[in-house]
Amino acid sequence: MSRLSPFVAIRRDLHKIPELGFQEFKTQQYLLDYIHTLPQERLEIKTWKTGIFVKVRGTAPRKTIGYRADMDGLPITEETNLPYCSEHEGNMHACGHDIHMSIALGVLTHFASHPIKDDLLFIFQPAEEGPGGARPMLESEIMKTWKPDMIVALHIAPEYPVGTIATKEGLLFANTSELFIDLKGKGGHAAFPHLANDMVVAACSLVTQLQSIVSRNVDPLDSAVITVGKISGGTVQNAIAERARLEGTIRTLSVESMNKVKERIEAIVKGIEIGYQCEATIDYGSMYHQVYNDEKLTAEFMQFVEQLPDVHVVRCKEAMTGEDFGYMLAEIPGFMFWLGVDSPYGLHHAKLTPDERAIDKAIALLTSYMTWKGNE
Ligand SMILES: CC(=O)N[C@@H](CCC[C@H](N)C(=O)O)C(=O)O
Question: Would you say which domain of life the source belongs to (predicted)?
Fold first, then answer.
């Protein structure tokens, strides 16, 4: 029987302890315990909230290459039945951040004992799923002193086979905004609807009306998404609901479309207030800047990877996913790419099961790329 790769074992450990944004205490401790086992001569380690910065001092630095991995899990109950499934009831690494962290540790492990000319900065970032750790981390004093000259990150892609990486120059991921709408009407007995203002009916109507925005208000040659992922309201089957809440997200390929979509949401919500005689409040939660890949660095990376054995490069289309790494790319040239992990279930699914062979492949690929880039 073949031995488990150390970084697959690390991934499994991390997979058991998914924590939500800015609560990644055990995850941070796990990473720190591991990082402290590495040769320390060239390392400088600083914590920031539940995140970590690790600098690897180069032998003759002219620039700093940044590498970012996100750390948080999602409030999803895992249904994989894996022997190493989540031990944190109700939370799951359903977006691959456990894989992202184990890959980052693999690359860091290599460079801790095989330094290159340039400095490297490994960024373990909390709260990617929300409320967003990239922006405050970017504004931190540590980042001001250690700001890299270029930066790279990856995201697992269930739809591609292991050995495939996919990316493109320019726009890769959408602009995002969370969306929370609270409705307050008048509750009452289920048998006397004429004496109440039913917020379950208002919420259902609102969800349906929101669907008209993408089909009727956004240019068909542009793209936008409004997803209501959670709806709650009411107390019991035979009482009319006084309150209802919609929780969702908006995705657009431009800031202009985001503003337009929000204008339309506000108009529709006003209509609901009038039509259903209720009070409504809208909260846009956290918003993420689009992920825009630096043209030159991305093209160069794709060319570099193409000549590696066993790696297939795909020039993909942009996706409506969001990533607060977009804030880092708005200030630092760099790129993000998809890493094929071949899972029959997609991102944010309770049965996501990435193929772990992608971990060592990604470590090898990133190690080669950074060695080349950091010795240029
Ligand atoms: C890669 C990925 O799945 N990212 C998340 C980012 C979520 C941002 C925020 N919580 C929102 O929902 O708008 C995504 O859902 O795309």
Answer: Bacteria
State pTM to two decimals. 0.94
Atom of ligand 1 nearest to the CA of 176: 13
Question: How does DSSP assign 256-309, residue by residue?
Answer: HHHHHHHHHHHHHHHHHHHHTT-EEEEE---EE--EEE-HHHHHHHHHHHHTST
CA torsion angle 298 303 304 306 (round to 10): 120
Q: How far, in Å, is the centroid of ligand 1 from the Cα of 370? A: 28
Active site residue 89: no
Q: How many domains does the chain have?
A: 2
Please tell me the predicted confidence (pLDDT) of residue 28: 98
Taking the CA of residue 179 as reference, the ligand 1 atom at the shortest distance is 13
Task: Flag whether 91 is in a domain.
Answer: yes
Q: Please check the confidence at residue 2 and state whether its pLDDT lies above 80.
A: no
Residue 74 burial (CB < 10 Å; 0-12/13-18/19+)? Answer: buried
Rg (CA), the chain: 23
Distance between CA atoms of 75 and 129, rounded to whole angstroms? 10
**Range(s) of the domain holding residue 274:** 175-287
- The residue whose CB lies within 8 Å of the most ligand 1 atoms, and thus the one to mutate among 173, 225, 246, 249, is 249
